[in-house]
Amino acid sequence: MKYLDIDSWNRKQHFQHFISLEDPFFSVTVNVDVTNTLKLSKEKKASFFAMYLHACLVALNSIENFKYRIQEDKIAIHDVINASATIAREDHTFGFSYIYFDEIFKNFNDNFLKEKERILNSEELFPPVNSDDCIYCSALPWFSFTSQKEPVSGVKNDSIPKLAFGKTFTENNQIKMPVAISVNHALVDGYHIGLFFEEFQSQLDKNN
């Protein structure tokens, strides 16, 4: 991890403006094509969720702004961004996971399965790891959506991106899935979200 030189950052004024707002987060929802990923998950008998989450993390880790986190009066730049995803239990509760990212899907999937096993065999809500080098994300497979709002932590300078993945649907012979992303505008602009969705779709398309 290292720290950003805010004084020489070309977004210094943008950062100072948005960080002064009561709620600097903004959200967008985009439908991504998961046709190939869903097909491959069935062929390999792998978790569809794990496969698209891995593709999502590959995309996020390729864009530096998504690695920025506000820590007091500094901006940390993490080396790697992991995932804190909600994992459901049979009693309809859930636990927060902490899944370490690995570019190799098999290694990432092993990390996912370990966290899933931990949560299914406990009643704990929070994971043993508490760090801001992650994203918060949830799967909402019961319904599709066109917009989504994340709960607000109330923590000053919260800067962890938050994502939600909805129920798949068919459109023009493609299987699509709504993805909502919420980011702190002090660190991330619409341009960076555009880069993310472009790379996310590219990673999903590679799953063939």
Shape: globular
Strand content: 25-35%
Largest sheet: 7 strands, mixed
Task: Estimate nothing, just give the exact number of structural domains.
Answer: 1
Termini gap: 34 Å
**Strand tally, please?**
10
What's the alpha carbon Rg, rounded to whole Å?
Answer: 17 Å
Q: What are the low-pLDDT stretches, counting only 5+ consecutive residues below 50?
A: none
Q: What do we call the CATH homologous superfamily?
A: Chloramphenicol acetyltransferase-like domain
What key attributes describe this structure?
single chain; 208 residues; alpha+beta; Chloramphenicol Acetyltransferase; seven-stranded mixed sheet; three-stranded antiparallel sheet; 5 helices; 10 strands; 31% helix
Your description of this structure?
The structure is a single chain. Strands 2, 5, 6, 7, 8, 9 and 10 form a 7-stranded mixed beta sheet that branches. The protein has helices spanning 12-19, 35-44, 48-61, 105-120, 190-206; strands spanning 2-3, 25-33, 68-71, 74-77, 82-88, 94-96, 134-140, 162-166, 169-171, 174-184. It is an alpha+beta fold. α3 packs across α5 (190-206). Helix content is 31%, strand content 26%. The radius of gyration is 17 Å and the shape is globular.
